[in-house]
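Dear support,

We are seeing what looks like truncated structure output for some complexes. This example has two components. We would appreciate it if you could run it in full and send us the complete C-alpha cell output so we can diff it against ours.
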Amino acid sequence: QKEVEQNSGPLSVPEGAIASLNCTYSDRGSQSFFWYRQYSGKSPELIMSIYSNGDKEDGRFTAQLNKASQYVSLLIRDSQPSDSATYLCAVKGYLRSYIPTFGRGTSLIVHP
Amino acid sequence: GAGVSQTPSNKVTEKGKYVELRCDPISGHTALYWYRQSLGQGPEFLIYFQGTGAADDSGLPNDRFFAVRPEGSVSTLKIQRTERGDSAVYLCASSQDRVSDGYTFGSGTRLTVV
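Here is the complete output from our reference environment:
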C-alpha cells in the first residue's frame, strides 16, 4: 500500500460545478496535510493546509480531514477552466520525521 | 530572497557526465528539501537539510547522488556518472517550521540525460 494514494484521473467537471478530489494515507500518526496545485510544466504551489478533523474553507476551496478514516479531500466550488491542473496531496507525520510524502496527484479538467 | 531560486532551469547532459544543481532557499528558512519528479508522478523525496547538516538522506537513490549545504543557505545537489534514468525535474523546497509548515517550491531544474 502506498503511503499517500490519489486517483490519477483525469477528473472532468463542467465550469461552475463542484470538483471533489480525494486522498487517503496509511500513517495513522500523520499530523499535517496539504494540497498543492501544479500547472503543467510548473512547480507545485501550496493552496491549502489542514491539521485537525473537520472542514477548512478558503475562498472557493474547502479542505476536509477525517483522521479516523485516514482521508483528506479538497472541494473546489464554482470550478473555473483556470482550475485545470494536477492537485497533489501531501502528508507529514512523526514516522517520516515530518518530511512530506506526496501522492501522485489527480488531474482536474474544467471544461467550459 | 523572495522565493526559492533554482539554477539552471534546464540542463541537458550526456550519459556519464557529472552535474550540479543549485538551490537558494527563502531567507531565514532553515529546512531545505530536494525532491525529484518524474512525468505523471508526485514529487519523490531525496534529502532534507536542517541547517548545514543532512538530517535525512534516505531518499537518495544511490551513491551517485550527493548534496551539500555548507553554510546553511544555498544547497547543491550533485549527480555523478549520470544515467538516462536520472532524467526528471529536480525540485527544491524550503520551510521555516518542519513540523507544521507547507513548502514553498522553487521552479525546478529539468535534467535531461542523453
